[in-house]
Specification:
222 residues; mainly alpha; globular
């Protein structure tokens, strides 16, 4: 492998790994494993951002990588695990239905992404073209996951997968402006959805959104 091929190969390994994790997320039915796979995808996105920052000579991508690692690789998965523990045991897994259909649909969406992106990016660098095809594939797999899954946590994972694909597309294009802003805006959206999930879980457990209902469960005398 020549030195000139190294940026191309490393970027493809990281993007391909993110795409593979997207299929794992689509296949996985255990919520705990789903959160672990989501954390892995966030860490891979962080590495991809740092690598593109090095290749492009773009220091702002190091900040994008740090945001992805801290928020998507650590903080959000920790919060989702805590939310998972609040769910009834029966909600820790989903029925193993439509797995085959989901995987076939995912493969077709990847093929569609390739057929759409490569012809319209003729003249661009090969690395950017293929990165965009991978990124669009990840976005479509996240959308498919949101459509096929019923649990709120799984749908949050699908939304985060879509946001990861958007950021991967942005960092793969040299000179792309507002990458950090795009990443931050995506995190704000995810945080809003997670807040909605928290409200839903609280309502299911206490039949109210009044935070005073939590006081009897704090273990403190009143």
């Amino acid at each position: 492998m020549g030195i000139g091929e190294l940026p191309y190969d490393v970027a493809h390994v990281l993007g391909g790994a993110m795409l593979l994790v997207s299929f794992v997320l689509l296949y996985q039915r255990r919520v705990a494993s789903l959160v672990n796979a989501l954390a892995l995808q966030g860490a891979l996105l962080a590495m991809a951002a740092v690598w593109q920052g090095y290749v492009q000579g773009a220091p702002q991508l190091y900040v994008t990588g740090l945001i992805a690692l801290v928020a998507k690789g650590v903080l959000i998965p920790i919060f989702l695990r805590r939310m998972m523990r609040k769910l009834a045991p029966g909600h820790h897994t989903e029925p193993a239905s439509n797995i085959g259909l989901s995987m076939i649909g995912g493969a077709l969406l990847v093929a569609l992404a390739i057929l759409v992106v490569l012809p319209v990016t003729t003249g661009a660098k090969a690395l950017a073209r293929e990165d965009l095809a991978v990124a669009l594939s990840i976005i479509l797999l996240g959308l498919l996951m949101m459509l096929m899954r019923r649990s709120a946590l799984a749908q949050i994972a699908g939304l985060m997968t879509m946001e990861n694909g958007l950021v991967l597309a942005a960092i793969g294009v040299a000179g792309m402006p507002l990458v950090i802003e795009l990443s931050t805006a995506g995190l704000v959206l995810v945080a809003a959805v997670i807040a909605g999930l928290f409200a839903r879980v609280m309502h299911e457990r206490f039949d109210s959104l009044d935070t005073d209902m939590l006081d009897p469960h704090r273990g403190e005398g009143r």
